[in-house]
């Protein structure tokens, strides 16, 4: 960690805890700042707050009292999920107090080289792919995955050295609170409309995403999806970095592309498309981005191939669970919208038994119809949207549909409808909150149900 005295004896407010808030508070405390932590949850249900109190920090819980802003704070470190409409944030803006997110703080002290990954979809998978490639046959140091992927960037910043690499997944919420952040290599996987309830407009969402390259210079690199014409225009508009495109649709003069079943980097064959274990066009795009980073980091083709031929995916993201009696089970619980489910469905050539449903946001699922028509043979629907999902399946000409209570009940029913060589896929196209606290808990329930079902079948034998 870099020696930094700019925060010594400075009054700083950390607004909102969770993992990133705890880590930011600890880092600032280590930098000898005068830290005040404010979290909405009450102290008796807030172990993170109690931990910080035990370490000697000032912690205020049970709400966000606007009176806090009567104090002379010189900086606010905001939890990414707290909107800028929050009264304390609005007051900070009015008083012209800088507002940053924890990733900006981490950037200021980190010694390792930083790779930043953003985009609407594919961030976590790409971040994990890059990390695993960089750690394959590595001779010195470690590549750490951090940021929106779960491990706070500031936690890694306190231990990473010049020998290490930090691979940082960056959400639009995190990027909006950056000022000087400048990855040596940035990646934009793709760009669609998302989180407009937070950003207000698509233009603001795009502006937040492009902050990943805002401070980059001609000594840095920006890797981007050249199959999106809008994104190609944006990177030329926003970035001063050296541009490295990737494409799965067309041959490129430079960058990473697919031709005749092989992946090339600047006309050098790296590996065959079929060597990539993860199914789906979207995962091929993630791999292209990861390969671009790897080649810029001077990783050998052998290391890239070793990593990608063993990479089974990130948990809950088109994750291969197991094979049983020639049926393949996949967990894609992270698919909380139709686009993610379409990507998952298009990733398979085999017949699919689809498990879908969840929180009803009042939207139609008709955009699923073309992908369903392709190779979905049966649908099991659960949750608030069960009836809507079944109606969509019927429109797609699928006559095998069953309404079940939850994913646990769906597993044996899906097996009953399946045949050898079928894929049984949980890809809900909905958030989980009607039945499960998170998509992770929903995915775990699915995988545990598979394990119980297989055990019961084996005991019958």
Automatic annotation (TrEMBL):
One protein family per Pfam: Mur_ligase_C
Pathway participation: Cell wall biogenesis; peptidoglycan biosynthesis
Single Gene Ontology MF annotation: UDP-N-acetylmuramoylalanine-D-glutamate ligase activity
Reaction catalyzed: UDP-N-acetyl-alpha-D-muramoyl-L-alanine + D-glutamate + ATP = UDP-N-acetyl-alpha-D-muramoyl-L-alanyl-D-glutamate + ADP + phosphate + H(+)
Gene3D superfamilies cross-referenced by the UniProt entry: Mur ligase, C-terminal domain, Mur-like, catalytic domain, NAD(P)-binding Rossmann-like Domain
Main localization of the protein described in the UniProt heading: cytoplasm
Subcellular location: Cytoplasm
InterPro entries attached to this UniProt entry: Mur-like_cat_sf (IPR036565), Mur_ligase_C (IPR004101), Mur_ligase_C_dom_sf (IPR036615), Mur_ligase_cen (IPR013221), MurD (IPR005762)
Chain's role: Cell wall formation. Catalyzes the addition of glutamate to the nucleotide precursor UDP-N-acetylmuramoyl-L-alanine (UMA).
GO CC, one annotated term: cytoplasm
Protein family membership: Belongs to the MurCDEF family.
Protein name (database record): UDP-N-acetylmuramoylalanine--D-glutamate ligase
EC number: 6.3.2.9
GO process annotations (BP): cell division; cell wall organization; peptidoglycan biosynthetic process; regulation of cell shape
């Amino acid at each position: 960690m870099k020696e930094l005295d700019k925060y010594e004896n400075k009054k700083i407010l950390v607004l909102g805890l969770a993992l990133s808030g705890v880590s930011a508070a600890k880092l600032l405390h280590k930098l000898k700042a005068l830290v005040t932590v404010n979290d909405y949850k009450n102290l008796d249900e807030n172990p993170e707050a109690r931990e910080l109190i035990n370490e000697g920090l000032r912690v205020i819980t049970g709400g966000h009292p606007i009176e806090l802003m009567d104090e002379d704070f010189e900086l606010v470190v905001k939890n990414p999920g707290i909107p800028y409409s929050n009264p304390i944030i609005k007051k900070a803006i009015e008083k012209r107090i800088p507002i940053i997110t924890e990733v900006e703080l981490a950037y200021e002290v980190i010694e390792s080289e930083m790779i930043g990954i953003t985009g609407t979809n594919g961030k976590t998978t790409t971040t994990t792919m890059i990390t695993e490639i960089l750690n394959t046959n590595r001779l010195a140091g470690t590549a750490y995955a951090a940021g929106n992927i779960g491990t706070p960037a500031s936690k890694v910043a306190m231990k990473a050295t010049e020998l290490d690499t930090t691979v940082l997944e960056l959400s639009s919420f995190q990027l909006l609170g950056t000022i000087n952040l400048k990855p040596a290599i940035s990646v934009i996987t793709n760009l669609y409309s998302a989180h407009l309830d937070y950003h207000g407009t698509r233009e603001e969402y795009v502006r937040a995403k492009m902050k990943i390259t805002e401070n980059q210079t001609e000594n840095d690199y920006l890797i981007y999806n050249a199959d999106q014409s809008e994104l190609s225009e944006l990177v030329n508009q926003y970035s001063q970095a050296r541009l490295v495109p990737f494409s799965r649709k067309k041959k490129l003069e430079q960058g990473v592309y697919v031709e005749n079943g092989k992946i090339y980097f600047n006309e050098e064959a790296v590996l065959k498309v079929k060597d990539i274990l993860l199914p789906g066009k979207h995962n091929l795009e993630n791999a292209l981005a990861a390969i671009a980073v790897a080649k810029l980091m001077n990783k050998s083709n052998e290391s890239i191939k070793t990593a990608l031929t063993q990479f089974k995916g990130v948990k809950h993201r088109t994750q291969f669970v197991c094979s049983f009696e020639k049926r393949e089970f996949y967990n894609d619980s992270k698919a909380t919208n139709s686009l993610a489910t379409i990507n998952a469905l298009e990733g398979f050539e085999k017949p699919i038994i689809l498990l879908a449903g969840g929180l009803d946001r009042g939207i139609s699922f008709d955009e699923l119809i073309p992908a369903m028509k392709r190779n979905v043979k049966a649908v099991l629907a659960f949750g608030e949207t069960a009836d809507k999902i079944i109606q969509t399946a019927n429109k797609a000409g699928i006559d095998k549909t069953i309404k079940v209570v939850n994913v646990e009940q769906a597993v044996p029913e899906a097996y009953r409808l399946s045949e050898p060589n079928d894929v049984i896929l949980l890809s809900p196209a909905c958030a989980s909150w009607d039945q499960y606290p998170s998509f992770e808990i929903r995915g775990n329930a699915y995988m545990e149900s598979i394990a119980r079902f297989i055990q019961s079948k084996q005991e019958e034998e």
